[in-house]
Amino acid sequence: MQEVDFLGILDEIGYVLLCRRYSLKEYAVYRGQFILWLAVAIIGVFFTYASISIIYGISSGIPGWNYYQMLALSATSTMFLGFVEIFVSLNMVTSQLLNGLYDFYFTMPYSKLGIILARSGNINTSIGSILGGILMFAYAIMHLNIAISSLFGYLILFAFGFFGFLIFYPMLGVALYYAVKSRDIGWAVNNVLRSASTYPLGIYGFSGQLLFSLLLPIGFAYYYPTEVLLHSSPYVFLFSIVGSVVIGLVSYRLFNVLIKKYTGAGG
What we know:
Oligomer: single chain
Helix content: over 70%
Order of helices and strands: HHHHHHHHHHH
Structural class: mainly alpha
């Protein structure tokens, strides 16, 4: 059995975090631009809040979900995707593979997965999305009777889903690059996932739940953690942990298979 190189893993993590730290510092140097993008992202979160408020103001809303539960669900999705896109954006992965911008970095003594995580983040709107999501989430749980144990379980599932998606997103980006040689395909798929994660999985029917739990497993990012937060289900908790781990392991294997075929932008 092959031994796990823990020092190598720590070195990879250090490289990724260092690159993202300097990207954030570089972005924050231009304060006017930083504030503008921050405001744009927060305004986007406000429009999500406003749309949910309008829906529940003129109708009975979504069956089984009250107003504050929907805010918590939407805030979870917003925060989650904001954290993921600090490290990896689907649009960045597909466009940079197409343009050959990874070719030089792939010669460095790090794994291709680590290099993509270090060089593919979208800082522009991520910070604002995270801050706006935190504010909306805090507002929602102030009006919900949430047990500390449920909040702790929610945070555990959020973390598991986050690390699973840090591997799933690069794999998906590489797969999209091979399937459709377009700079915009990553952006389009990301918009689909963002839109889908605004609402509970139940509204998509059985086939939709399978789609967003298996093929495009955004459910592990926002829906199942929120279910545990609101209903403290031990079965959903266990299912979400196992599902997130499986997503990470399968995505890692598929990523390595796909990236081996990449020979450069001219290949």
